């Protein structure tokens, strides 16, 4: 069906081109005196016939091009397409106004070529600006609107008017972890805590899991949210904002954080890295926990209980009271014993801290 439509389009385009361009061609080849040839009906028929014949060779390529464009357009989110189109319209309007001003100058050739170039360049730039700056434009328009009535209670919808630099988004891992409730109680976390609905949905799926461990963790996360709402002085808001074109929860969090200018609270090492790539400010609970741990420096002695062997040959593993793992080189023979070790190095990352040590007598 599409191929037939394209062939008919070629037919009409050919007729129009024949009507416009064939009469000058007749004059050029000295055939304009022939009344059977040089008349509008024959020109339209010849042009339509030529392009219709040509359509048999080009219609398949046109069908493939249209199908490719359909696939590309269907993959583009509606919001992106809308703002790109608005940018294109603005670019074409600016190009028309500039071209209208240039026509007054009456410069040969330039008056014919420059408006076309301006339309192509400014139209493309307008589309790109509208497409890439959609989040900033939405944010700008929403800030200019008057404040709407806020829903009573703690579980109010998150709106653009409630944005502030202290807004913090909670991800699933930090809710399940639970330490956020204790930190919030101490007052070290300022501003509004926002839990997106897609995070709450993921938490509910975990709580409904058939796996006992997952189900326990999910229910613990729901209890932590309830505790935050009951004990926190400022609001804990459930945001209904969602992004249908994105399936991954982490990427939705990043998009929402960029849109509202919020920080992300997490203890997920991978999400931490993704936020850094997207230049979104992230607050990692593990970083905070590591920062308040007692400082251990190489050369310091400590008393530890070696409880198991390590991954490498002849290694032993011990733990501090805060859960920090100590890898004791040559400590396998001391498993089950409390010994004095000397710290040799400390490895600190967002995933945690690891201390490497050797038995004191071996260092000596």
Characteristics:
13 helices; 364 residues; alpha/beta; 15% strand; six-stranded mixed beta sheet
What does the model show?
The protein has helices spanning 2-28, 40-75, 78-103, 110-132, 134-144, 172-177, 179-186, 197-207, 212-231, 249-260, 269-277, 285-291, 360-363; strands at 168-170, 193-196, 236-239, 263-266, 282-284, 301-305, 308-309, 315-319, 325-329, 338-349, 352-359. With 364 residues, the protein is α/β, with parallel strands linked by helices. Strands 6-10-11-9-8-7 form a 6-stranded mixed beta sheet. β10 and β11 form a beta hairpin. The longest helix has 36 residues, at 40-75. The N and C termini lie far apart (88 Å). The model is unreliable at 146-163 (pLDDT under 50).
Topology:
Elements: H1 2-28, H2 40-75, H3 78-103, H4 110-132, H5 134-144, E1 168-170, H6 172-177, H7 179-186, E2 193-196, H8 197-207, H9 212-231, E3 236-239, H10 249-260, E4 263-266, H11 269-277, E5 282-284, H12 285-291, E6 301-305, E7 308-309, E8 315-319, E9 325-329, E10 338-349, E11 352-359, H13 360-363
Parallel strand pairs: 1-2, 1-4, 2-3, 4-5, 9-11
Antiparallel strand pairs: 6-10, 7-8, 8-9, 10-11
Helix pairs in contact: 1-2, 3-4, 7-9, 8-9
């Amino acid at each position: 069906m599409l191929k037939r439509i394209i062939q008919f389009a070629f037919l009409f385009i050919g007729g129009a081109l024949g009507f416009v361009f064939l009469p000058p061609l007749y004059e050029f080849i000295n055939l304009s005196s022939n009344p059977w040839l040089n008349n509008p009906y024959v020109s339209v028929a010849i042009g339509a016939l030529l392009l219709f014949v040509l359509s048999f060779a080009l219609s398949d390529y046109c069908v493939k091009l249209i199908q490719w464009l359909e696939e590309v357009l269907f993959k583009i989110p509606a919001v992106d397409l809308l703002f790109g189109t608005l940018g294109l319209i603005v670019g074409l309007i600016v190009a028309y106004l500039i071209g209208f001003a240039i026509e007054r100058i009456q410069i040969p050739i330039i008056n014919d070529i420059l408006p076309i170039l301006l339309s192509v360049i400014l139209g493309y730039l307008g589309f790109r600006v509208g497409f890439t700056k959609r989040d900033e434009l939405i944010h700008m328009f929403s800030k200019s609107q008057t404040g709407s009535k806020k829903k009573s209670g703690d579980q109010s919808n998150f709106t653009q008017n409630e944005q502030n630099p202290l807004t913090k988004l909670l991800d699933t891992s930090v809710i399940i972890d639970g330490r956020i409730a204790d930190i919030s109680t101490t007052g070290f976390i300022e501003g509004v805590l926002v839990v997106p609905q897609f995070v709450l949905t993921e938490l509910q799926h975990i709580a409904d899991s058939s796996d006992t461990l997952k189900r326990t963790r999910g229910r613990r996360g729901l209890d932590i949210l309830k505790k935050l709402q009951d004990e926190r002085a400022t609001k804990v808001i459930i945001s209904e904002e969602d992004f249908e074109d994105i399936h991954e929860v982490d990427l939705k969090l990043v998009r929402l954080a960029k849109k509202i200018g919020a920080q992300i609270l997490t203890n997920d090492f991978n999400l931490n890295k993704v936020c850094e790539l997207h230049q979104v400010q992230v607050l990692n609970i593990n970083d905070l926990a590591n920062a308040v741990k007692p400082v251990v420096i190489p050369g310091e002695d400590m008393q530890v209980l070696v409880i198991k062997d390590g991954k490498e040959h002849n290694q032993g593993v011990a733990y501090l009271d805060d859960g920090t793992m100590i890898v004791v080189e040559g400590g396998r023979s001391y498993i089950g014993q409390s010994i004095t070790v000397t710290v040799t190095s400390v490895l600190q990352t967002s995933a945690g801290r690891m201390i490497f040590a050797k038995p004191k007598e071996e260092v000596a």
